[in-house]
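EI: anyone free to look at a 124-residue chain?
SC: sure, send it
EI:
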Amino acid sequence: MLEAYLPIFVLLGIALFLAIVLAILSRVIGPYRPSATKLRPYESGMDPVGDAKERYSISFYMVAMEFIVFDLEIIFIYPWAVRYKELGLGTFFAVMVFILILTLGLIYTLKKESKNFQISKSTN
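SC: here you go
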């Protein structure tokens, strides 16, 4: 049974070997001229401000959760779309309810974020 997975293991081995060899070669062959400017932390072209342990706003987490939810939606909908005709009308309605619930959640979070944005904008 493991013979079926042999090509995958060979490919993973080759990829791991190449990654290690190329990382070592870039360090050995490539130029290395550190300076104070190059060694400073880089944050999108801006000087770093504040502590690294600062708290993120709740909207950051809301966007991250929306991203995860819609990734999961695609994972569930793609196989259904492939077998759409074979699964029947009941499955179609079940998927539409699933999409409706996720869309309502998206609308809720978007309205919640816009209210938070208006409140934070008015206080600044």
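EI: The chain has a mean pLDDT of 82.
SC: 👍
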